[in-house]
From TrEMBL:
UniProt-listed Pfam families: Acetyltransf_1
Keyword Nucleus annotated: no
Gene Ontology terms for molecular function: acyltransferase activity, transferring groups other than amino-acyl groups
Record protein name field: GNAT family N-acetyltransferase
Keyword Acyltransferase (UniProt): yes
UniProt entry keywords in alphabetical sequence: Acyltransferase, Transferase
InterPro entries registered for this protein in UniProt: Acyl_CoA_acyltransferase, Bact_Acetyltransf, GNAT_dom
Domain N-acetyltransferase, chain residue ranges per copy: 10-178
Gene3D superfamilies, alphabetized: 3.40.630.30
Amino acid sequence: MVKKPRGKKYLIRDATEEDLPVMVDFLAKLALHVANAAPQNLKPDESRRLVTVMRSSLTAPDKLLVVAEVPGAGLVGMGYIYVMSSQGIWEQTSHVEFRSGFIDDVWVEPEFRKLGIFPDLLRRLVAFAESRHAYELVLEYSASNKEAKAAWTRLGFKTVGVRAAAFTSAVQEALANRRQE
């Protein structure tokens, strides 16, 4: 699906195989932005791995990758969402399946921000979630990313929990140390 609103100088469309290398670059920029790190290049193996992962999303029925394209400038943004089902965890009288849309990555190049690209990408992601009967949206952003927090809060997102992360090796080591106590 292609969307070019009247008067807008960009196009929001489904991603294609040819877009994947640029999208991997966007993911790297997003990670560096979140980490407040200096620019650097991905290792070739990591770049290939990400292309492979994203390629599988192009044809998956519950995943959507979209891009923003500006004539003459090329791709300037991307968005990714996937829809998953889960069972309710609270006591219920009948089987209930919840479907949630997980907004995984949204990026717009800095020089193309404030043009309406971000909300148009998000509109496509939300419409996709609703078309898959997911009426809840979930996302995560770094606690240090105040820009992201402000943007998502303005759109109605509220912090409802804390996500903790650890390397499996660290957990294994901690568990091994507990056995020795």
